């Protein structure tokens, strides 16, 4: 018995016949998709990946499809090869890709037409990634040889971590079209102008005017911005936590030393939070 195909629609004229063929085609598609789902589950299990909703959604995006039905159907008819699933598995197990997945909701996908020109400086010497300007290991690509100050983007590779390309790299359009999910925002910055947050825990013996003196010392330090301050006193013991924004460790050390000079302050400790 010959099974109907979509080409049969070209040879029938009545609406009833066409609807009958479409109904059979839809049933065939669903059956193939069901078989494809089972096959995909086995293939992913072999790659040490447990199928769940997140994995299916990632695969739909990975293969640039619209629905999970499309994914299962393509697996069922054999148009998705094992090598492609292995590429997905390699990316999923890559720690840099895990970082990238965490950022993807916050970091806009690189679009060539959205590039904003920035006034660049000869002092732009540090490369940072993502909306939070994280420092990550990277390699400069040899196809376009970016140098400090160039407008660039990061490309998450399978085996070599992040490769950095110029935004006008000859391969940029191809990478964006075929591997948009592996693009990560990157930019050169002037390391001497970079600011970072530091939190200081302060303890000591409470005394009249101590709070005012502490606030005065912090605010009088050049290049220090107070982000938040929390002070309390109980049973004669003073406790405080101050979050400041500074440009470098030298400025932070000077601030710490000045706070320690205040009468009544016993200890100033920098707090490191994840």
Task: Please specify the SSE layout and strand pairing.
Blueprint: H1 15-46, H2 53-62, H3 68-77, H4 82-93, H5 95-103, E1 126-129, E2 138-140, E3 152-156, E4 162-166, H6 172-178, E5 183-189, E6 196-205, H7 210-220, E7 225-234, E8 237-246, H8 249-260, E9 265-271
Parallel strand pairs: 2-4
Antiparallel strand pairs: 1-5, 3-4, 3-5, 6-8, 6-9, 7-8
Helix pairs in contact: 1-3
Task: Tell the overall outline.
Answer: elongated
Beta content: 15-25%
The total domain count is 3
How would a textbook summarize the main sheet? Answer: 5 strands, mixed
Number of helical runs? 8
**Spatial ordering of strands, largest sheet:** 1-5-3-4-2
Structure summary, number of beta strands: 9
Structural description of this entry:
With about 270 residues, this protein is an alpha+beta fold. The protein folds into 3 domains: about 15-85, no CATH class; about 100-190, no CATH class; about 195-270, Alpha-Beta Plaits (2-Layer Sandwich), CATH 3.30.70. The chain is built from 8 helices and 9 strands. It has helices at about 15-45, 55-60, 70-75, 80-95, 95-105, 170-180, 210-220, 250-260; strands at about 125-130, 140, 150-155, 160-165, 185-190, 195-205, 225-235, 235-245, 265-270. The strands form 2 sheets. It has a 5-stranded mixed β-sheet. The protein has a 4-stranded antiparallel β-sheet with strand order 7-8-6-9, covered by helices on one side. Helix 1 (about 15-45) packs across helix 3 (about 70-75). The longest helix has about 30 residues, at about 15-45. The model is unreliable at about 5-10 and about 105-120 (pLDDT under 50).
């Amino acid at each position: 018995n010959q099974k109907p195909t979509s080409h049969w629609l070209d040879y029938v004229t009545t609406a009833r016949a066409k609807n009958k063929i479409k109904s059979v085609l839809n049933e065939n598609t669903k059956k193939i998709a069901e078989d494809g789902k089972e096959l995909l589950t086995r293939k992913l299990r072999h790659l040490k990946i447990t199928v769940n909703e997140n994995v299916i959604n990632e695969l739909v995006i990975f293969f640039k499809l619209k629905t999970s039905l499309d994914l299962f159907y393509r697996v069922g008819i054999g148009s998705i090869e094992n090598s492609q699933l292995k590429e997905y598995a390699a990316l999923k197990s890559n720690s840099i890709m895990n970082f990238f997945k965490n950022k993807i909701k916050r970091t806009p996908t690189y679009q060539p037409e959205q590039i904003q020109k920035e006034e660049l400086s000869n002092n732009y010497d540090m490369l940072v990634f993502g909306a939070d300007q994280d420092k990550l290991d990277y390699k400069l690509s040899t196809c376009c040889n970016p140098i400090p100050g160039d407008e660039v983007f990061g490309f998450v590779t399978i085996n070599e971590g992040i490769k950095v390309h110029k935004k006008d790299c000859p391969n940029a359009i191809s990478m964006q079209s075929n591997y948009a999910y592996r693009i990560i925002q990157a930019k050169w910055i002037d390391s001497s102008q970079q600011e970072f947050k530091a939190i200081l825990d302060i303890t000591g013996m409470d005394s009249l005017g101590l709070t005012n003196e502490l606030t005065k010392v912090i605010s009088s330090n050049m290049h220090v911005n107070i982000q938040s301050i929390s002070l309390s006193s109980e049973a004669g013991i003073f406790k405080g936590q101050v979050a400041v924004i500074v440009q470098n460790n030298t400025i932070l050390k000077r601030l710490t030393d000045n706070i320690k000079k205040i009468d009544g302050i016993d200890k100033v400790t920098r707090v490191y939070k994840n």
